[in-house]
Structure formats: C-alpha cells, structure tokens
Specification:
By secondary structure, the protein is an alpha+beta fold. It folds into two domains: 92-136 and 154-257, Penicillin-binding protein 2a (Domain 2); 261-591, Beta-lactamase (3-Layer(aba) Sandwich). It has 20 helices and 22 strands. Strands 2, 3, 4, 5, 8, 17 and 18 form a seven-stranded mixed β-sheet that branches. Strands 11-10-9-22-21-20 form a six-stranded antiparallel β-sheet, sandwiched between helices. Helix 5 (129-140) crosses helix 6 and helix 13 packs across helix 16. The chain is elongated.
C-alpha cells in the first residue's frame, strides 16, 4: 500500500523571495533600469473592476452617439434624407403646356399649336450605338458621327431631333431601335403661312415668345406647364410599381384679334404687287374701322433678292419712323381752322417760293403768284401755302396739335418695340423749322400714328385709340372682351367736316385722283417725303417715302387706311400709294358690304376753284428750291443737303433761333 506524504500548508504557499532592486550605481552613476518584467507584472496586477468600468463607459458613449445619430436621421432629418434617396431614383420631366391659339375677328386661326414628335434616346439602353447612328442618320438628316456622340453620352435623356414631322416620326418608329424613343411635343404653326407674321410674332423651339403679340401676351398664351415623375433604376429603366406622378399641363388662353383674315390677305397682296411693280424696298399698309379704332389689316413687307416681297422681321408700322411729308398738312390746316386763324372761305396770295430763315422753299411746279383758297392749297398740296398757314398758326399751337393728334407718344397698343416717333420741342425749333414742320419735315412718325391722325378727322374730330385685340378666351371657353378704345376730342366736328371737304377735293381733282372709287366719296392726302440716312445727318440722295392716307365713304366713314412705300419708282405718293389704297378699300367695301352713300349734300368748305386747279393733279413732290427737271430729283433748299433736321431729331445748330 502506497502512502502519500502530504505537504504542509506552509510549504505549499511558500513563494520565491522577491529580489530587491540593487542600490548599486552603474558605471555612469545612474540607477540601473527597472526590469521590464516588473512593469508587466504591475500592469497585470491592475484591478479588473477598473478596466471593466472604463470599457462600459466607452461602450455607453458609443451607444449614445449612435442613438443620437439615429434620432437625427430617422426623426429630425427624416424627410430630407428620404427626399434625397427618392431624388436619386426618380426623374422629373416638365410637360410644356399647349400654347393658346390666335384667331382673327371671325374665329379663323392665324396661329395654332399642333402636336409633333421629338426623337430622344436613353444611351444606357442603346445596345449598338454605331448601328443605331447609321440607321438614324438618313432619316433625321444628320451625320453619323454626331448621332453616335449623342447615343454614347453619359446621360439617361438626350435629344436626337426636336419636333419632327409625322413622316419622319413614323420612319423612326419603324426602325424599332433599342433605347430610341418618341416624345410628343407641341409646335407653333401659322396655318396661313406668313400672313400677318410681323403682327403675330414668333416663338422659339421651346415655345418661348420671341416677338410680336406672342411676347406681349406671353403670360396669357403660354399656359401652365405640367410634370411627370418616374422612378428608375441605375440603368434608367422604369421600376415596376415604383413612383409615378403625372400632373397635366393647362392650355394657354386664346387670343382673338380685330384683324380680318381675308382683308389682311388682300392688303398684303396689293402691297406686295406694288412693291414689285415700283421696285420698292418695302412697304406698309393699315386699315382701321373708322368708328371703333379696330385694326382690320396690318401689313409690313420688304423686298427680297431671291423672290417676291415677304414679311418684315419687325412690325414696321409700329417700330419704324419716317418723315410724313405732305400728309402732315392735314394737321397744319386743321389746327389753323380750329384755332380760327384761317377760315375755309379765306384766300391767300400764294407765290411760287417762300423764304424761312436762311432757306427758300418752293412748290413742286412753278406758278405765278396767285390767289388760292384754303381748299386749293390742300388740293394742290401747296408747300408755300401750307407754310404760310403754319406761320399764322405759330409754333406753339402747331406743336399742340401735332401732339393732340398723337405724334410724339406711343399708341395704346403697347406693342413690343413700338416707337413714339421724334418731335422737337418748340423751344428748340431751328431757324427754318417753321418752314419744315408745317409740310411734314423735321419730325418723324410711325405709320400707326399717321393712320390714327387721319382717323381723327374721319371720326368727326375725335381721336380713337387704335385697337388690335378684341378678346381672350380661357381653357373653359369663357370669353373676356377687351375694353373699347379710349377717345378724346382733338378738333370740333365743324373743323373735321371742313377738313373732310378739302380732302375730298384732293381725290376729286387734286394729287390723289388714282385713289378714287366709283360710287363712293374718298377723302385723303398724298405725301412724298425724303428718306433720312440712317446713323448720320441729312437725307439719302434720291430716296423717298411715298404715301397716301384717307377714309371712305367720306360722308360716313367706314374705313380709314394708309399706304406707305419705301423708295418706289416713280417716287410720287399719288402715283404709287393712292392706287393701292383704292384696291384695298374696294375689297373692304365689298367684304363688309358697305353700300354706296346717297348723293353728297352741300360741302362744309368751298370746292377747288378753276384757277386754283390749273396745276392741281400734278404729282405730289417735296419742297425744293427749284422746279425738278424730268430726269433730276431736287435736293434741299439753299446749299446744304437738308433744309430740316433729319429724322433723328439732330442737326447742325443754326446761327440763331426764331
């Protein structure tokens, strides 16, 4: 039996003695380094409770930080992060609203919007860009290189061709190319071609207004765009059952104009024909309802090198200014009649020339000094007689009537780019201004201002503001009519009647016999005004604006019209503008079924006398120092190139003012 010897407790617990650090110094007198085993032993001997506490504190702080961040992300900023995530998956497409249409007074469309197809691509879905570019190039009329570049762009939406016609869209669809799609878009069309294009204006590729009424009524016509939101994966494909929101667009309001489509067409046709026949650079024509001020036709045409006359880039009847010439004599004479400085029965001794300041003004055709009635002066378009009447009126009253008739201020139309014209302050008149302004030189007007002035006489002496928009129609079909034109009294009915009688004689036996219309009385006045040099002083040699303004029937006017030709041959308004007026007026009388008036009663002013009519009917010419020869156009009075400030309103200061 084996016996075990049990060790005594004291012996089991005996530990090896701890070696005390030596107190001996090293060779340099420093205490020896403590052994590393001792440091490790002390570290291991640190209390476990302290280490555990530190670990718990660190973990607690980390947990608190995580909780705070989670609260911030999930509660405080939840909407922001949610929206950020959705934005990475969704794409928003703006849906352009259909632009409102523009109609004439009878509901015929002048401008409309139709749906076209736009070809676009998602390059992420195109499997073979080279093959797709080769197939699309002949269909879209583009080169393969540019199409290949579009088909490989780092985007999920790229336009290939905007608003193509139906035939091209059908060919693209037939190709059935991966990643190539058709998107419906609206496009602006003028169904009548360029008819009234300067008035209507233009829009850009994205249907943004660029000019004309499209700009002025942009807020009404453009409508309210819609939008489509679609959720897509990283490759651009739509996620099934994903986000899909569709907000339809709201169509813009329609615009109903006062223009008459048929009369507009005839006006442009007659004007274009004369531009071609007279080799003119362009022309303008306007027709207005005499009683309401509503504009029935508005044409601005320019000659082209490669074809017939076409629409002007701008609506020249409102944006271009020119010296009115003899048509301005209406204001000089009517102002003098209204002021009482002359009477219709007065007779003036009219010489062939008159000196004003340093310049001498003459008639278009020399004549001996003779007595002419006021009617004779108007019918014969006498420059000397008109200057004499202007001097009786005086510069301040002359300026008053020029402004009362609407010169120097914009019309109520508010058309984009409209000019107010150029009119000198009487305090700044030049020494020869009372020789130029009464006969329509030294000031500049728009065709619209001139038309409104003649319509004032046609309307019994009351100015009627021109009107172009009749109503607007919203998407629900509700029509909102525009207010009637503003009116103001300029001259009395008596003065207007006297002036009308004189204008009748201009057409009957005067300078505008070619404006006569069988069965109707026509009142009007011719004008031939020199054309200023753009950007500098003086007049362009041999260049004239030729015009005729009038109304019909003169007893009870239905229409007031104006025709202006730019540099025609021949240059005389009575020969080139008056016949166009007659053509347009005849058509308007037929279309609107205006019957011939009864025989005229006694006139308010004496007719032209036999003596005064001896040279009546000669072509209307601008003032000149000498009578023109058959082959030479006269220049300015005196030795200068101009006897009046140019249309820019600037000139070389004279020696002194009157």
């Amino acid at each position: 039996m084996t016996t075990r010897t049990r060790q005594r407790p004291a012996e089991r617990r005996r530990r090896p003695p701890v070696r005390q650090p030596s107190t001996r110094q090293g060779p340099l007198g420093k205490a020896p380094r403590r052994p590393a085993t001792v440091a490790r032993r002390q570290l291991r001997s640190a209390p476990p409770r302290r280490r555990l506490t530190a670990l718990i504190v660190v973990l607690a702080l980390a947990f608190v930080a995580i909780v705070v961040r989670l609260v911030q992300v999930q509660a405080v900023d939840a909407k922001r992060y949610s929206a950020f995530g959705v934005s990475q998956r969704t794409s928003t497409t703006t849906l352009a609203a259909e632009r409102g249409s523009i109609f004439d007074r009878n509901g015929r469309e002048l401008a409309m919007t139709v749906e076209q197809s736009t070809v676009w691509t998602n390059p992420h879905l195109v499997t073979d860009p080279a093959a797709a570019a080769k197939a699309l190039a002949p269909v879209l009329g583009q080169d393969e290189a540019s199409l290949h570049a579009k088909l490989t762009e780092a985007s999920s939406f790229v336009y290939l061709a905007r608003k193509v016609d139906d035939g091209i869209a059908a060919k693209v669809k037939a190709l059935n190319l991966e990643g190539v799609f058709l998107l419906p878009e609206s496009k602006r069309f003028l169904p009548n071609g360029d008819l009234a294009a300067p008035v209507i204006g233009r829009v850009g590729l994205d249907n943004q207004a660029l000019s004309g009424l499209e700009v002025k009524y942009e807020k009404s016509l453009e409508g309210k765009p819609g939008r489509m939101v679609v959720e897509r994966d990283p490759q651009g494909s739509q996620i099934p059952n994903g986000v899909r929101e569709y907000t339809p667009s709201t169509r813009g309001d329609d615009l109903v104009l006062t223009l008459d489509q048929s009369l507009q067409f005839e006006t442009e046709r007659a004007l274009a024909s004369e531009i071609t026949a007279a080799h003119a650079k362009g022309g303008m024509a306007l027709v207005m309802d005499s009683q309401t001020g509503e504009l029935l036709a508005m044409a601005s045409l320019v000659a082209s090198q490669d074809g017939g006359p076409g629409p002007s880039p701008n609506n020249d009847v409102l944006t271009k200014v020119f010296e009115p010439g003899s048509v301005n004599k209406l204001i000089t004479v009517s102002g003098a009649l209204e002021s009482g400085v002359i009477q219709p029965t007065d007779k003036l001794v009219v010489p062939s020339t008159i000196r004003v300041g340093h310049d001498t003004f003459s008639e278009h055709d020399p004549h001996p000094t003779q007595q002419w009635s006021i009617t004779d002066i108007v019918a014969n378009s006498s420059n000397v007689g008109s200057i004499m009447i202007g001097q009786k009126l005086g510069k301040d009253r002359l300026d008053h009537y020029l402004r009362a008739y609407g010169f120097g201020t914009k019309t109520a139309l508010g058309f984009p780019g409209e000019s107010a014209g150029l009119l000198l302050d009487p305090a700044h008149y030049y020494i020869n201004s009372m020789g130029t302004v009464p006969i329509g030189q030294g000031l500049a007007v728009t065709a619209m201002q001139l038309l409104a002035a003649y319509n004032t006489v046609a309307n019994g002496g009351e100015y009627v503001a021109p009107k172009l928009v009749k109503a607007t129609v919203d998407a629900s079909g509700n029509r909102q009519f525009t207010p009637p034109s503003a009116r103001r009294r300029v001259v009395s009915q008596r003065t207007a009647a006297e002036m009308t009688s004189m204008l009748n004689e201009v057409v009957r036996v005067g300078t505008a016999k070619l404006a006569a219309i069988d069965g109707y009385t026509v009142a009007g006045k011719t004008g031939t005004a020199r054309k200023t040099v753009e950007g500098t002083y003086g007049y362009k040699a041999g260049a004239y604006y030729s015009s005729f303004a009038g109304f019909v029937p003169s007893q009870h006017p239905a229409f007031t019209a104006l025709v202006v030709l730019d540099e025609p041959t021949p240059i005389y308004g009575g020969l080139v503008a008056a016949p166009v007026f007659a053509d347009i007026a005849r058509y308007a009388l037929r279309e609107f079924r205006v019957p011939p008036p009864p025989p005229a009663a006694a006139t308010a002013a004496p007719p032209a006398t036999a003596a005064g009519a001896q040279s009546v009917g000669e072509p209307d010419l601008p003032a000149s120092t000498t009578a023109p020869s058959p082959t030479t156009l006269t220049s300015s009075p005196s030795t200068s190139s101009s006897n009046a400030p140019p249309a820019t309103g600037q000139t070389t200061p004279p020696a002194k003012k009157p």
